[in-house]
Amino acid sequence: MTAFNDLDPLLHSQLRLAVMSILMNVESAEFVYLKEQTNATAGNLSVQLDKLSTAGYIQVDKSFRGKKPVTTCRITKAGIQAFRQYVKDLEKYLKP
């Protein structure tokens, strides 16, 4: 039987898992979109994106659209691998 500590603790957070799930299905997503889709506060989302970025799971790009700052996130190859492994590990709990 797999122990819970076998699950990636970085992805086991509800908000980080939601962000990764979204990014698995799009080429990239802007901060505002992620905030709307997750119902997170800007501050909490920013902290969680920093954690995912530090782990190398996502890439965060900051740019400007006119004078307005735009933050865009995309999942990395390492993030895709970590997410797929997390799902495989989670599936072990669902099988008798």
TrEMBL record:
InterPro entries: WH-like_DNA-bd_sf, WH_DNA-bd_dom, WH_DNA-bd_sf. It comes from the Bacteria. The lineage of its organism: Bacteria, Pseudomonadati, Bacteroidota, Cytophagia, Cytophagales. It comes from Fulvivirga sedimenti. Residues 15-94 form the Winged helix DNA-binding domain. Transmembrane segments: none annotated. This is Transcriptional regulator.
